[in-house]
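Encode chain A's predicted structure.
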Amino acid sequence: MNLRRQRHAGFTLVELLVAITVTVVLAGLLIAVTSGALNIWQRAQSRLTMNSQVRLALDLLARDLQAAVHSSDTGTSFAVDILSSGQLATHSWRLKDPRIKPDDTTSLHALANTTVLTEQRIADSRFGQSGVWLRFITTNVAAGGSLPTAVSYQINRRPVSGAVTGPNQTPVRYSLFRSKVNSDDTFKNGYDLTAAAYASLSDAALGDALCDNVVDFGVWCYVREGNGTLTRLYPDADNDRSFHGSAQVGAPSAARYPVIIDVMLRVLNDSGATKLEQIELGRVDRPPEYGTDSAWWWGVVDAESRTFNLRVEVTGAPLP
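Encoded structure for chain A:
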């Protein structure tokens, strides 16, 4: 009787090593593909959120401007101001962090590309540390129209929650706010928006946040001449910080009530907002390719933001 020796199947050490290597490579490829897909999805969601917020903010601003009214009395019924750091404490700004948006010439180019008129674009402008502080009287506050009401638009820098002067417990962001004074107080205070009675318009914390991550907000203002051409009232120069328009008879030509407004919003994506927060709170060191903190701040913003532009025709109806 012949006995047959049976062999038991198994893997050699080399075969096990090859199998492990293939598995690791496949897992790495799968992680890379999944990570790439997730990043694409996150960027798409960020763009969708940004576009939705910007659209809502610009639509509201356009409706307010289209329903703007003015008084023929003396006083400013349309105001644009670019504020300095010293003025922002009364505007609910968080100013205590080490590297916030610079208040210097890198941030103020209200009239872009001044050397070539045909290339001037509001999208290339920069409107100071806080953007423009825009105020006017509108009848768009309530659905279906309202009595004349003073409104303002401005950028604010503050934590997403909590006190503006408190510790850094929540992310600090730039946002576009809309503030308003009720119609009764507007009537009582009159229609001169530079009057002390309208100081509450400077406190964005009392208003509504319209759009997150807005790091610049600007306007160009025009009047239409008798031959149909447009004359720009504001800005008149690259460092122009103020325009106060009036509809009173005999108002200086440079202070007429505007009929066309170009609007610009510069908005960071989510990645850019996070990077900028780390820079401003002093949590990262400045890269050697940037000579100053101002250049670094704007380098990140230029790389991580988009500009949105809108032209609005102001009806400028007289107040009753």
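The CA atoms of residues 272 and 300 lie 7 Å apart.
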